[in-house]
Design brief:
128 residues; alpha+beta; Tetrahydropterin Synthase, Chain A; 20% helix; binds the ligand Nc1nc2c(c(=O)[nH]1)N=C([C@H](O)[C@H](O)COP(=O)(O)OP(=O)(O)OP(=O)(O)O)CN2; binds zinc ion; queuosine biosynthesis
Length: 128
């Protein structure tokens, strides 16, 4: 049947941020924290044995990056741009394409960042 396989893996971490460019009265201008969830989605033109887009285990470097760089940090100190969900998703996608994707059979489709249970922002890569 025509179609395309995609896989996803979700990583979680705790971090603080503020968005100082917002008006003073905006709740997100104040320093506050979130339990973040980040989902990486990959695809591939064909499966590799035993039938994987990419072994979920090969995404371990993402957990390593998150644990060492984002978890229990102030995201304003990590990103050079405002730490919105949109900017964080693009930052993670760019890092993944440079450092992890070259050694994988699959390729990154999107990164979705959730700050809360009811909101998310996604960076979708152009077809490459
Ligand atoms: N497009 C975006 N909008 C907002 C972002 C963002 O990254 N991208 N971020 C924030 C704040 O960080 C805020 O902490 C989260 O906003 P919000 O979902 O409004 O949080 P609440 O806890 O108030 O959500 P409720 O479900 O309404 O309780 C703001 N906007
Ligand atoms: Zn926030």
């Amino acid at each position: 049947m025509p179609g395309r396989h995609r896989i996803g893996k979700t990583f979680r971490f705790e971090a603080a941020h503020s968005l100082p460019d917002l008006s003073e009265g905006h709740q997100c201008a104040r320093m506050h924290g979130h339990s973040y969830a980040v989902e990486f989605v990959l695809t591939a033109d064909r499966l590799v044995p035993p039938g994987f887009v990419t072994d979920f285990g090969e995404l371990a470097p993402v957990k390593k990056l998150i644990d060492s760089t984002l978890d229990h940090r102030v995201l304003n100190d990590v990103l050079s741009v405002a730490p919105t969900s949109e900017n964080l998703a693009a930052w993670l996608a760019s890092w993944f394409v440079e450092h992890v994707e070259p050694s994988l059979p699959g390729r990154l489709v999107s990164v979705r960042v959730s700050e809360t249970a009811s909101s998310w922002a996604e960076f979708v890569l152009e077809e490459r």
